[in-house]
Write a structure and sequence with these properties.
Strand order of the largest sheet: 1-7-4-5
Oligomer: single chain
Order of helices and strands: HEEEEEEE
Radius of gyration: 18 Å
Number of strands: 7
Number of domains: 1
Shape: globular
Length: about 130
């Protein structure tokens, strides 16, 4: 009987977790879409700095069999999913060999930054 109750509990927990996710909470926004499914976020974590600001650390991974040039930026979002500093975040150039990883990080501009989104696009001449 305990096994049946535990299985029912775990099943309902998984269903609730699946319902809790929404399309707006995606970590990556592929600007243009050509790199969707090619470069992905393998791991990410948000930690608090000593000053109380959020800091994200993420690992980008090139799933393809060829090297990829791209640009990325990390945009911070408030509790309503609205960007709090998108215009102040520069695009940075990135390069990943086949099956390679790149560690990226960013500190939120203030404590209203609750979530982040990594935006990835094809190269457009950024020099940073």
């Amino acid at each position: 009987m305990k096994k049946i109750a535990m299985a029912a509990f775990l099943g309902s927990s998984l269903l609730l977790a699946a319902c809790a996710s929404s399309p707006s909470s995606k970590i990556v926004n592929y600007r243009g879409g050509e790199l969707a499914g090619v470069i992905e976020v393998q791991k990410s974590a948000v930690v608090a700095t000593e000053g109380g600001l959020p800091q994200v650390r993420a690992i980008l991974f090139n799933k393809s069999g060829v090297a990829q040039k791209f640009e990325y930026k990390i945009v911070w979002l408030d509790e309503h999913e609205m960007p709090v500093d998108e215009e102040n975040r520069p695009w940075k150039s990135g390069f990943l060999n086949s099956k390679d990883q790149l560690s990226v990080n960013s500190t939120g501009p203030h404590d209203k930054a609750k979530r982040f989104q990594i935006q990835i696009r094809n190269p457009q001449g950024v020099t940073k």
